[in-house]
Design goal:
Blueprint lengths: L13 H19 L4 H12 L3 H29 L1 H20 L4 H29 L3 H32 L4 H4 L1 H15 L12 H22 L4 H24 L13 H30 L5 H28 L2 H19 L8 H11 L4 H13 L6 H35 L9 H9 L1 H8 L4 H40 L6 H15 L1
Length: 522
C-alpha cells in the first residue's frame, strides 16, 4: 500500500478570523439592502412622490445591477486585486449612500440605487474570494463560508426589521446612512487584516456584462409597462429586444474561450435544477414580501417599527430552518427537503389569498410565519448542491451563479409580482372610489395606494375615510392576486426540486461513499 504524506494546511489564527468579520459584516449589509427599503417605501413615497412604477424601480434596480455585474466584477477583482476592488466598492457605496439620503427626486433615487448595485457587485465576489485566501484548512474554510452564507441569509431576513427601527427614530434617509460606518470599517480594516490577491492574467469581458444587464432591464421594463397598462406595442418591443440581447449574450459566452459566465454549466442537471428552484423560490417570495410589508403599514396601519417586529417571528423561524436544512439533507434527499419547504410555502400563500382589510393581525403574522421559512431549504442547500456537482476548477463560477440567483430572484419577484399587484390594485380601485371625489384625487388614488393615502389626508373627514377604505380593499386585493401568482411559482419550483434533483443522494450517504472510496484506493 502506497502512502503519501502531505503537509497539513496551516491553521487560521486570530487575525484571519477578525478578517472574516471584515468580510461578513459588509456582505450582510449588502444583501440587507435588497429588502431594507420594503418598509421604508411608504415614507419615501410621501417625500419623493414617485409613480407606482418608479417606486418598483427604486426597490428592485439595486438587485438587478448587482446580479448583472457580479461575475464581471469577480474577474476585475482577480485582475486588479480583490482587496483593492472591495475598498473601492466600499468608498463608492458610502458616498452614494450619502447622496441617496439627500435626494428629493424619484428619478435620481433610481440612479443612486443602480450605482449602489454596481458598488455591491464590486464587493461581494471579493468577500467570498478572500475567504479562500484567508483559510487554507478545509474544515476552517467550510466554517468560514458557512458564516458568510449565514450572514447573507440574515441580511435578507432582517433588512425590514432594521428598517423599522431606523424609521421609528429617524427617517427613510437612515436606511441609506446606516451603510456609511460599515463601509468605513471595510476601508480601515481591510488593509490591516486582509491579504491582497490578484491574477494578472485574468481578462474581463465588460461588454458581456453590459449585455446581461441590458437584456434583463429591457425585459423588466416591458413587464412593468404592461402592469401600468401603457400602450402594448412598445412593451412588446422591449420584451423582444431583451430576449434578443439575452440570446446574443448566450451565444457570446458559448463562443468565448474564457466566458464571463460559463453557460455550459447549465447542462449539468444538478446545477440547472438547483438554480432554477432557487431563482423561482426567491422570486415567489420577493414579490409577496415587498407587497406584504406595505400591507402591514397601509392596511393594518402599523408603524414601521411595529411592522418590523411583526416580521421578526418569521425571520427567526427562517434562520432556524436554514440551520436545520443541511442536517435534514444528510438523511433525506436534498431535492425532497427543498420541495417540502416550498409546498409549506404554498400553504402560506393560500392563506394570503384569504386576507382582507379586516383580518386580525395574529392571522396575518401566522400566514407569514408559514410562508417565509419555506424558502430556507433552497437558500441553505443550493450553493453546496451547485458547487459540489462541478469540477473543482469550475467551483468559483458555480458559486457566482448561486449568489447571482439569490439577488436576481428577489429582484425579479419585486418587479414581476409587484407589477401584478399594482395591476390588480388599479383594476379594482376604479370601482371602489367614493362618489364626489375630485378628478385629481381620483387620478392619484388610481395610480398607487401611497397616492390614495396622501390624497385622503387632504380631503374632508368622511370622504377621506371612504377613500382610505377603498384603497385598503383594493391593495389587499392586489396582495391576494400576487399570492396566487407566487403560489403557482412555488408549486412549479417544488416539482422541479422533486424531479430534477431526485438523483442527488442525501449528503450523509455521499460522504460515506467518498470515505469508503478513499479507504479502498489507499
Amino acid at each position: 500500500m502506497n502512502q503519501t504524506t502531505n503537509a497539513p494546511a496551516p491553521k487560521a489564527g486570530a487575525k484571519q478570523w477578525w478578517g472574516l468579520a471584515v468580510l461578513v459584516t459588509p456582505s450582510t449589509l449588502l444583501f440587507m439592502m435588497l429588502t431594507i427599503l420594503f418598509l421604508a417605501a411608504p415614507n419615501m413615497a410621501a417625500d419623493l412622490n414617485p409613480s407606482s412604477t418608479q417606486l418598483l424601480w427604486i426597490l428592485d434596480i439595486y438587485g438587478f445591477v448587482m446580479a448583472g455585474f457580479l461575475v464581471a466584477m469577480g474577474v476585475l477583482g482577480d485582475r486588479i486585486g480583490k482587496r483593492l476592488l472591495m475598498i473601492i466598492g466600499a468608498i463608492l457605496f458610502a458616498g452614494v449612500s450619502i447622496a441617496a439620503s439627500l435626494t428629493t427626486s424619484a428619478e435620481l433615487m433610481i440612479t443612486w440605487r443602480a450605482i449602489l448595485g454596481l458598488a455591491a457587485a464590486m464587493m461581494i465576489p471579493a468577500t467570498l474570494g478572500l475567504i479562500f485566501v484567508l483559510f487554507a484548512d478545509a474544515k476552517q474554510r467550510g466554517v468560514a463560508i458557512g458564516v458568510w452564507a449565514g450572514g447573507i441569509s440574515a441580511g435578507v431576513a432582517l433588512g425590514p426589521l432594521l428598517s423599522g427601527v431606523l424609521l421609528e427614530g429617524f427617517g427613510w434617509q437612515a436606511t441609506f446612512l446606516v451603510a456609511v460606518p460599515i463601509m468605513a470599517l471595510v476601508v480601515i480594516g481591510a488593509p490591516l487584516l486582509l491579504p491582497e490577491h490578484k491574477d494578472p492574467n485574468a481578462k474581463i469581458d465588460l461588454f458581456s456584462a453590459l449585455l446581461l444587464v441590458g437584456g434583463l432591464l429591457a425585459i423588466i421594463y416591458g413587464v412593468k409597462r404592461f402592469a401600468a397598462q401603457e400602450p402594448a406595442g412598445p412593451s412588446i418591443g422591449l420584451l423582444v429586444a431583451g430576449a434578443l440581447v439575452g440570446l446574443w449574450f448566450v451565444i457570446r459566452q458559448l463562443r468565448a474561450e474564457k466566458p464571463l459566465l460559463d453557460v455550459r454549466l447549465f447542462a449539468n442537471r444538478t446545477v440547472s435544477g438547483a438554480l432554477a428552484v432557487f431563482l423561482l423560490s426567491a422570486a415567489a417570495l420577493g414579490g409577496v414580501y415587498s407587497i406584504f410589508t406595505q400591507y402591514l403599514q397601509q392596511v393594518q396601519e402599523l408603524s414601521p417599527l411595529q411592522a418590523g417586529l411583526s416580521i421578526l417571528p418569521a425571520a427567526a423561524v427562517l434562520i432556524v430552518v436554514s440551520t436545520l436544512s443541511p442536517v435534514f439533507a444528510r438523511r433525506f434527499r436534498p431535492g425532497n427537503v427543498i420541495a417540502i419547504g416550498l409546498l409549506t410555502q404554498v400553504v402560506g400563500y393560500i392563506l394570503f389569498t384569504q386576507l382582507d382589510a379586516g383580518t386580525g393581525l395574529a392571522l396575518v403574522i401566522a400566514s407569514f410565519v408559514i410562508t417565509y421559512p419555506g424558502v430556507a431549504p433552497s437558500m441553505a442547500l443550493t450553493t453546496d448542491l451547485v458547487v459540489s456537482s462541478v469540477p473543482p476548477e469550475k467551483a468559483g463560477g458555480a458559486s457566482g451563479l448561486a449568489t447571482t440567483a439569490n439577488d436576481l430572484g428577489i429582484s425579479l419577484g419585486v418587479a414581476v409580482i409587484g407589477s401584478v399587484g399594482i395591476a390588480a390594485y388599479r383594476n379594482q380601485i376604479g370601482g371602489l372610489l367614493p362618489d364626489g371625489l375630485p378628478a385629481d384625487a381620483a387620478a392619484a388614488a388610481s395610480d398607487s395606494v401611497d397616492g390614495a393615502m396622501a390624497t385622503a389626508a387632504e380631503l374632508p373627514g368622511a370622504l377621506g375615510e371612504q377613500l382610505i377604505s377603498a384603497a385598503q380593499e383594493a391593495f389587499t386585493g392586489g396582495l391576494n392576486t400576487a399570492a396566487i401568482v407566487s403560489a403557482s411559482i412555488a408549486v412549479l419550483a417544488a416539482i422541479i426540486a422533486a424531479t430534477r434533483l431526485r438523483h442527488v443522494r442525501p449528503t450523509g450517504e455521499a460522504q460515506q461513499a467518498d470515505e469508503s472510496a478513499d479507504t479502498t484506493t489507499s
